[in-house]
Amino acid sequence: MHPRCIKCNGEHAMRDCSITEKTEEPKCLNCGKKGHLAAWKGCKALPVIKKTSDGQSRKSYAQAAAEQKNKEEQTDRKDASLSGRGT
Ligand SMILES: [Zn+2]
Ligand SMILES: [Zn+2]
User: Fold this and answer.
1) Is residue 60 in some structural domain?
2) C-alpha dihedral, 42 to 44 to 49 to 55, nearest 10°
3) Is residue 73 part of a domain?
4) Which end of the chain is more exposed for a tag (fewer CB within 10 A), N or C?
5) How remote is the CA of residue 7 from the centroid of ligand 2, in Å?
6) Could you read off the pLDDT of 5-27 as tens digits, one per residue?
7) From ligand 1's centre to the CA of 46, what distance in Å?
8) How many C-beta neighbours within 10 Å does residue 42 have?
9) How many domains does the chain have?
10) Please, which domain of life does this record's source organism belong to (predicted)?
11) CA–CA separation, 82 vs 87, rounded Å?
């Protein structure tokens, strides 16, 4: 499973992205709008985790939650590294 960069949609982790500076108008890869990244929870195109009652395994839900948590951690890392770097 390849990591997916939310900045350029490339197959690398966001921290490995060649785009290091903070963009004032990031373009969302989910909905195509500018002003927020694809990981933004307010994005209307962000895939939401629905509770299903049709007998789907609990494991897939837990995996989805774990991935969501991982996404948040990556965002936190980005903010920390950028704020410490300056320009
Ligand atoms: Zn990238
Ligand atoms: Zn969006």
Assistant:
1) no
2) 160
3) no
4) N
5) 12
6) 888 888 999 888 887 777 667 78
7) 18
8) 6
9) 1
10) Eukaryota
11) 9
pLDDT tens profile 25-76:
778 888 888 888 887 888 888 776 677 666 555 567 777 778 888 777 776 6
CA distance 24 to 36: 9
Range of the domain at 14: 1-41
Beta pairing partners, 34: 27
For residue 55, report the distance from its CA to the centre of ligand 2, in Å: 30
- 28, 36 Cβ separation under 8 angstroms: yes
pLDDT, residue 57, reads 54
pLDDT at res. 81? 59
The alpha carbon of 67 and the centre of ligand 2 are apart by a number of angstroms equal to 18
19 part of a folded domain: yes
Q: Report if residue 54 sits inside a domain.
A: no
Say how many Å lie between the CA of residue 50 and the centre of ligand 1: 28
